[in-house]
Amino acid sequence: MSEVELLNWLRSTGLHISIAIFVIGLVFRVVQNLLIGADKNLAAPRGSKMGPGLATIVRRSFFHPHMTYRGYFTLIAGYLFHLGFLITLFFLSQHIILFESILGFGWPALPPAVIDVTAILGIAALIAVLIHRLIDPVLKQISDYQDYLAWVLTMFPLATGFLLMHPMGASYSVVLSLHILSFELLIIAIPFTKLSHMLSIFISRWYNGAMAGYKGIKQ
Amino acid sequence: MSSKSERATQVLVEQIDAPIASYFTSCVHCGMCADACLFYNETGDPRYTPIYKLKPMRKVWQQEFTLMGRLMKMLGLSKPITDEELKEWETLVYDGCTLCGKCSTVCPMGNDLVYMLRKMREGMVAAGYAPDGLKGAMTRAINLGSPMGVTLKTLQAQITRTEKETGLTIPIDVKGAEYMLLLSSAEIAQFYEIIGAAARIFKQAGVSWTLCSEAFEGTNTGIQIGASDLAAELIERIVAGAEKLKVKAVISPECGHAYTALRWEGPNLIGRPYPFKVIHILELLEELRLQGKLKTKGMEEQRLTFHDPCQLVRRGGVIDPPRNLLKQVASNFVEMTEHGMHNWCCGGGGGVSANERAHPLKAKVFDVKKRQLDELSVTTIVTACSNCRNMLDEGLEDHNMDIEVVSLTETIAEHLDES
Predict the structure, then answer these.
(1) B176: alpha, beta or left, given left = phi > 0 and alpha = psi -120 to 50?
(2) What is the pLDDT of residue B348?
(3) Which of A148, A28, A136, A211 is nearest to B28 (CA)?
(4) Which uninterrupted H or E stretch holds A122?
């Protein structure tokens, strides 16, 4: 397979396969969790589940006054990474062309200079969280191979994408192939790793809030 | 895999429900739960990070419920849980956790970590990995009816003493009374004044109540050690007593975990709703206050604070009643910086107080309470849990702190306007 053939396969069949695994896998993962079920609560309720469940989905996104440096660092770096990554993914003109070819519609792009900033922000935040994970005693204690695997899988598309925008002598088609391949690997990995928090976070927050709401615990 | 670790695995698989599977799926290993853990905060030992305490359960979840985990297990890259692991985790899960639930309030993923830790204890104890102190309390609760070995005879002696002191008749086994009052072992053994306090308040408010000779103890070591079958048996005794006396409601005593056990876990443990209502004594006092039936006179004028029992407040939802009640009889009530939902545990909840092995650690983690109290310079701590009372008394004594610890119900009773 030549360089061009590989690139074409990655852009068509490869992309379709990875998107299918991503979507079906992630939905399956979450539905599979839900299907385990939970026993009906027989204790007389003091409050309701739905409202507090939904409120918790929103509330846990905020900073709160009881956080320590670890909390602030994690949330600030976490927000910077997610914002940098998602803005770069959804607002780079080349990405929008790809989304348009799949979805049938597009949206306005951000100027390349802005995307440079968001990409660098994403990369810098990722590097910061990795360093934090390597030196913080709590994070060292609780980290396993998946945490590092997820990091590599997330960093790779960002780094190769940055190289595409700022060529440093490598073959454009090779870097583009690597960029697409790395993105496909990332989305394939999502349903099988902790990256599936992108969907399950809503379920977890809801359960926590709903259980507290049922007991009438005002948060 | 030994038969013990196999048993633990089997029970843990049974414990994993949709919420737990979702929680493990969501965890990104950010470590923020560590900051809410009493034990991590006071020792700095990262092994007390709540999600780390759940590691064996997480392993079982990965190996039995996820594709990656199953694959890793098949390839021999991930090993089943071992006896050594369970032995090590016994100290993390029982000695280094009071089930206070502060971790569950901070997880950015929304994970209810203490819900998971409570369930993990089921697997631990099923395989025999639980502290001897707690096992002993469990045996006494089942055989004698009280984790501290308090019997009906002890209660009867305290009733006689109370009747002499108050001149009131303490009702016992009165059929058709509206409320059946439960007590904790520590109340019967050490803080019997609560019986007289309740009797005086109920007399003034015209509450029809009784004690029950077959079900007077509200504590539940079963939910602390993680043995649902034994926890259910203790609940069944209360249900039988309440049904026999045909009461409309059972009053949960000033004891945090008794409330969680009876109010929130009980019906689920026995598999059916109760034919009566469960109300915490502070909820009842608050109802009486709102109905104008709780008449008091005079105020406590010294600087005092309220210590929130975790199971009553953070995990139980009784947050405002103690504050409203206290304000009726105290003019100089100040809150700790972190209070209510965010309060720090006394260090002896979740069975830690019954686990002698954990006592040096328990004494160490009291430092946070000391700092909270030093900030306030109070002379009195009011609380609503006899276990917290004991833990606070011990901690204050260790640090030579001259602060009085009192019960909220007793404080109210002292100001009762009986004229």
Answers:
(1) left
(2) 97
(3) A148
(4) helix A112-135
Q: Which of B231, B259, B290 is the last residue of a domain?
A: B290
Best interface-test mutation with A: which of B23, B30, B75, B106 has the largest number of A CBs within 10 A?
Answer: B30
**For position B1, what pLDDT does the model report?**
67
| Same domain as B248, residue B183 | yes
Interface of A with B in 12-31 (CB under 8 A): 29-30
pLDDT tens readout for residues B404-413: 999 999 999 9
The verdict on a CB contact (< 8 Å) between A217 and B271 is no
Q: What is the mean pLDDT of residues A179-187?
A: 98
CB A15 within 8 Å of CB A8: no
Spatial CA neighbour of A34 closest among B388, B25, B53, B242? B25
Nearest CA in chain A to B19: A207
Q: Is B333 on the interface with A (CB under 8 A)?
A: no
Q: Give the domain CATH number at B358.
A: 3.40.50
Q: Say whether residue A219 is in contact with chain B using an 8 A CB cutoff.
A: yes
Q: Tokens for A67?
A: 């956080």
Domain end marker among B243, B262, B290: B290
Best to test chain B binding among A32, A138, A149 (most B CBs inside 10 Å):
A138
Question: Is B29 an interface residue toward A (CB < 8 Å)?
Answer: yes
* Residue A153 contacts residue A182 (beta carbons within 8 Å): yes
Quickly count helices (H) and strands (E) in chain B.
22, 7
In a domain, B353, yes or no: yes
Quote the pLDDT of residue B370.
97
Average pLDDT along chain B: 97
Predicted local confidence at residue A67, as pLDDT: 86
Spatial CA neighbour of B269 closest among B231, B308, B309, B315? B231
The nearest CA of chain A is from the CA of B127 a distance in Å of 23
pLDDT of residue B213 exceeding 80: yes
Residues of chain B found within 8 Å of residue A46, distances taken between Cβ atoms: 317
Q: Which of residues 128-147 of A touch B (CB under 8 A)?
A: 136-144, 146-147
Q: Which domains are assigned to chain A?
A: 3-36+61-214 (1.20.950.20)
B265 and B341 housed in the same domain: no
Residues near B19 by Cβ (< 8 Å), separated by ≥ 6? A38, A204, A207, A208, A211, B112, B115
- Mean pLDDT, range B23-39, rounded to an integer: 97
